[in-house]
Amino acid sequence: MKNLKFAIIGAGNIGSAIVEGFLKTGIIKPENIFITDQRPEPLEYFKTKGLHTGKDNFKAVTFADFVIIAVKPYIVKSVLEEIKSKLVDSHHVLISIAAGISIKNIEDVTGRMPIFRTIPNTAIAVQESMTFITEANSTKEQQDMVQKIFNQLGNTMFIAEDMMNAATVIGSCGTAFVMRFIRASVEGGVQIGFKPEVAQQIISQTAMGAAKLLLETGGHPEQEIDKVATPNGMSIMGLNEMEHNGFSSSVIKGIMAAFHKVNR
Fold first, then answer.
1. What are the strands of the beta sheet with 129-136, ordered from one edge?
2. Is 8 exposed, middle or buried (0-12, 13-18, 19+ CB in 10 A)?
3. Domain 6-159 CATH class label
4. Would you list the domain boundaries of the chain?
5. Domain 167-262, architecture per CATH
6. What confidence tens digit (pLDDT) does each residue in 93-126 have?
7. CB 120 within 8 A of CB 131
8. pLDDT of residue 171
9. Do the strands 129-136 and 115-119 form a parallel or antiparallel pair, or are they unpaired?
């Protein structure tokens, strides 16, 4: 894998996070990555890391085996138009990270070629992303390779393309939802006497531990709640107060609002 060459088109939040994940794990050598952007600042930063950098997307694609499209959705078509002549009848594998851009949208420009549509989240920068993958025209070997790459950056799940919007809501937007819960908990911690940085450390570790319990035991959240919520205790009193104020309902409504937005 270390000898594979990658073009990352776009050095925004997700594109940069992917590169940071590659560099931290060492799965891709810096000299085998060519990242492009129209802004000089991220290019200057990644050049200091040993990457090839520039504004020329065509040159980056010429360099690479795998091409990762990490630009805003409204730019995807123009980028594909720019590089499509190099993609035709070549060895390239195309990986799109643009939300809402279907494989058919891509094929309408590039024609038939190995295409992967992926939805990671920003935790990819610390190798803890939940990345969803769907594909077209690819071999089993290519599928295994793409999954192996993203497994180094968190966990992966192959899903049907018609589930990608739903996956985006709970897996990508979900990062923001969890962050808002953590932020609210920190504010509560400050109100009961902790300094903000101490409260954040406590809540962050608690949230990570709770998630790890579910991931490693395969248990249900309510099973873990029952272990903590003793009769007439603090936990059940806090939980019930949250529920009286619409906690679960608000979370579900927020997820549905995001889902309706992405499906418009």
1. 52-54, 33-36, 6-9, 66-69, 93-96, 115-119, 129-136, 154-158
2. buried
3. alpha beta
4. 6-159, 167-262
5. Orthogonal Bundle (1.10)
6. 999 998 889 999 999 999 999 999 999 988 888 8
7. yes
8. 93
9. antiparallel
